[in-house]
Amino acid sequence: MTDAELAAHLAEVAGRILIDVRTSGLFSPKALGKAGDQTANQFLCHALREVRPEDGLLSEEEKDNADRLAKSRVWIVDPVDGTREYGEARADWAVHVGLAIDGRPAVGAVALPGLDGGTLLRSDRPVALPPAPEKPRMVVSRTRPAKEAVAVAERLGAELVPMGSAGAKAMALILGQADIYLHSGGQYEWDSMAPVAVAQAHGLHCSRIDGSPLVYNRSDVYLPDLLICRQEQADQLLTLIADVARTGG
User: Fold this and answer.
1) CB neighbours of 129 closer than 8 A, spacing ≥ 6?
2) % of the chain at pLDDT higher than 70
């Protein structure tokens, strides 16, 4: 398999495993999240070490290995992005499988197994984006919307769309559920790497909220903010974000 085919296959299979774990009926919501995380992580990490043994690996659920820093190719995975949503039997959670090459998001697949029939979005098979609506829609955390996002939405006149996982939010732009994903509340590399690879392949703008590029496979995996939007919105949004930061709201 190519790297893109592998990423898609792994994300899809891990999604099916997670659905099976959830429908087993054996776990409370809190225990379900832990069981799902660990089960999917074991599958993804064992599979990647089997079929791509020379590549580096970074997973939210694995102890970090500094050997990856010397490698050009590093797989970055999040077995369950949105563990709370998964445990609550919601649909807005995801599986992330991505490959960073020289720090750049090169390949990605994001599975959304909780949607009816399951949905898989991948960097090697982009689909046409739906037309932009007159009133922009911004996805934000359903539990703790970032104040910068709320302030920018107010200035832009955008509708707020609460949603769970980072992957679900990013893919909402491709699925026609939203137009802007602005986050400033803290994330890690596994939260955004695969979604960014998929979003970029679909022609979307992806950057830090100061406009700088998103760089992966660093020693410090904290990557707290990002902006994903349509290309034609990027300049206006980056200007608004800078103004909000300067004025404090």
Assistant:
1) 173, 174, 176, 202, 203, 204, 230
2) 99
Query: What gap in Å lies between CA 99 and CA 10, rounded to an integer?
Result: 12
Tokens 């703008």 -> residue? 205
- In three-state secondary structure terms, 138 is strand
202: how many CB neighbours lie within 10 A of its CB? 17
Does the pLDDT of residue 248 top 80, yes or no? no
- What pLDDT is attached to residue 80? 97
Q: What is the pLDDT of residues 168-198, one digit of tens each?
A: 999 999 999 999 999 998 899 999 999 999 9
- Does pLDDT of 219 surpass 80? yes
- Amino acid letter for position 241: I
pLDDT above 70 for 249? no
Q: What whole-number distance in Å separates Cα of residue 77 and Cα of residue 193?
A: 8
Any idea of the CA torsion for 165, 217, 107, 9, to the nearest 10 degrees?
-70
Please give the sequence-ordered ranges of beta strands (E in DSSP) within 69-196, or none if there are none: 73-81, 94-101, 104-112, 119-122, 137-141, 159-163, 180-183
